[in-house]
Amino acid sequence: MITVYVLLSLKDNATYVGMASDASKRLKEHNHGKNRYTKGHIPWKIIYTEQHPDWASARIREKYLKSTAGKNWLNKQDGISGSLPA
């Protein structure tokens, strides 16, 4: 299973959408500065996850969540509403 995840920066409320086979391990990598974009926004927390059976379907969902429509959808989800920047 592949996890599509959304991170929220505790520093400046930036968001990041990604996918990984091990989301917990990937979060540690983000928080240790191993990614160019996320390095400047440490620390991060996971605010949303979804499981997908393969990389192809996970990539489609990741691309959607990065779109304006996907960001709007995320803002409407319970537990996330109010967490994401406008």
UniProtKB/TrEMBL annotation:
Gene3D superfamilies: GIY-YIG endonuclease
Top-level taxon of origin: Bacteria
Ranges where the GIY-YIG domain occurs: 1-76
Database matches in InterPro entries: GIY-YIG_endonuc (IPR000305), GIY-YIG_endonuc_sf (IPR035901), UPF0213_domain (IPR050190)
Family: Belongs to the UPF0213 family.
PANTHER family for the chain: UPF0213 PROTEIN YHBQ
Name of the featured protein: GIY-YIG nuclease family protein
Organism: Hanamia caeni
Lineage: Bacteria, Pseudomonadati, Bacteroidota, Chitinophagia, Chitinophagales
